[in-house]
Here is the input.
Amino acid sequence: MPAPMLQEREITRLIVEEYMNELLANLELDVAIVGAGPSGLTAAYYLASEGKKVAIFDRKLSIGGGMWAGGMLFNKIVVQDGAREILDNFEIKYKKIGNYYVTDSVHAVTALAYHATKAGAKVFNAIGSEDVIVKDGRVRGLVINWSVVDNLPVDPLSVLTKYVIDATGHESEVIHTLVAKNNVKLATPSGGIEGEQSMDAETAERLVVENSREVYPGVYVTGMAANAVFGSPRMGPIFGGMLLSGKKVAMDILDKL
Ligand code: 48F
Here is the structure.
């Protein structure tokens, strides 16, 4: 009997071997991004486009963060004029209505993901970051674990990285863990986490770009995490600031790498 064309054992071997090869190739990174929402994917694209070694870890199976849902599940994305160039960089189609650009959230998320991964960023989905490696007053790595292990007592693994970007949205999880576990002072007005304020789209969209910066040696904040850490308002369902913020941290890090 001829050997079957498709062999279960070979399919399994290919998956395990290729995944492991890729994981091994990403144990030392230029930039580890936590969170594959709009800001994290945008940062990944601009960093990877310049040839930097970038991996994004997202604890969810499907990436895109809060962008799929538009506003209250009406899956439209609104972007302001200042971010139009980024829409164009990602080949996102839109309709111009007054000063706003409106696009479809599924189209926008898939375009961000497509271009970030095509540029060379590796997405590890279903892997969360639960801690960082801190040595000599600087964050030097990310502690990662399968998100599906949930409450099981499973010890994590780690990757080394020159920079970590906290792109975890409202929770700003990387910074919260850094502050909770270490006696550190952040580059914020109080030296701690200021906490997010109520909605004010215009102020929030302006500040999210300003707030997107290094808050502790080796760690940047971007997207909603930046406003949560710096005590700025939430912006609600407008996404230009997320894109501009992701680009800003990428450019700042590129200057240093
Ligand atoms: O929330 P999210 O979309 O973050 P963002 O890029 O964008 C915010 C907007 O979606 C919206 C807004 C209006 O513009 O304010 O909320 O700032 O994506 C955050 C991603 O981080 C993942 C989470 O699954 C989501 O995909 N995430 C959160 N904590 C962790 C994490 C963690 N500890 N490890 C890995 N991924």
Summary: The domain at 8-256 is CATH 3.50.50.60 (FAD/NAD(P)-binding domain). The CA atoms of residues 90 and 115 lie 6 Å apart.
